[in-house]
Structure formats: structure tokens, C-alpha cells
Amino acid sequence: MVGITWRKILRFFSSESEKIEAPAYKFKFASFLDLNLCKQMKSLKIGDFNFCNTTKFEISGNSNLETVSIGQNSFYSKDKKDQMTHTFSIFNCANLKSIHIGANSFLSFSEGFELRELPNLEVLEIGEVDMETNCFSCCNFVLQGECFSKTET
């Protein structure tokens, strides 16, 4: 971990904040991120080239969260030796409406991809149109159950 301290991340990701934004390159070499402390968060926006050494992305039990947006080349590790331990999960977030993931993010995440208990999810956007994206390219990708809201008839 180069130049990143837990205290610096905590200042940026306050547990009381409704809107959390990490500009591009702000936390490029950070090796951890615990978003489960941020129960007031309604919006999460992580810019390009952040958290490249982080092996776990999890958000759970946040009933306030409405949007998640991850920029390009974030949560991207070129270190192939520990790829099998990288996991992505978002679950039990009743008000989450949209997830946007930029190109080449979560490239080395291979252990798991999980979305569940997201009854209001309307948009899941992974990668960029007309661009090689490589998101979750090392992972089995399965969507099951009622992740997306049902349309009224």
C-alpha cells in the first residue's frame, strides 16, 4: 500500500455521508475498502484508476443506497497469482436502482460475482459500448432470481 492510510480513506468515506465520490487516481494503490460502514450512503461514485490492489468489493444491507458508479480501470490488478481470491457482491440493498461499471474494472475478479436481494434494480451496465471492456473477464457470470424490478402490466 503506497501512500494510503486507513485514516485517509476514512476521512474520504465518512460513515455519515450520503454521497461518496473518489476522484480518478485518488486511491489507486489502496488495498482495502469497507463500504459496509457507510449506511447513510445514497450514491457511490468511484473514478477511474482506483483501488487497483483491492481484492474484495462488497456492499450489503444498505437500504439508502440508490446508485453505484465505478469508473474505468478500477479494482484492476495485473497480479495473476492471487486472482482466485477476488470477489464482487452487492446484496440486500432495497433501494438500489442502478449499477454502472466502466471498462476494464474488476478485470481480475474471478472468485465470485453476486447480485441478490436488489428488488428495485433497473439498470446494470457493465463496460462500454463499442469498446473492449474486460470487466469480470476471469469470472463466471450468473444472474439469478429477481435482481431487476418487475414491470407493471
Description:
The chain is mainly β and 153 residues long. Strands 1-2-4-6-8 form a five-stranded parallel beta sheet, with no helix packed on it. A three-stranded parallel beta sheet has the order 3-5-7, with no helix packed on it. It is built from one helix and eight strands; from the N terminus they run αββββββββ.
Overall shape: it is globular
Helix content: under 10%
Cα distance, first to last residue?
52 Å
Overall SS class: mainly beta
Rounded mean pLDDT score: 79
Radius of gyration: 15 Å
Q: Order of strands across the widest beta sheet? A: 1-2-4-6-8
Observed structural traits:
8 strands; 23% strand; 1 helix; globular; mainly beta; 153 residues; five-stranded parallel sheet
Write a short abstract of this structure:
With 153 residues, the protein is mostly beta strands. It is built from one helix and eight strands.
Topology:
Blueprint lengths: L5 H7 L6 E4 L20 E4 L9 E5 L6 E4 L16 E5 L6 E4 L10 E5 L6 E4 L27
Parallel strand pairs: 1-2, 2-4, 3-5, 4-6, 5-7, 6-8
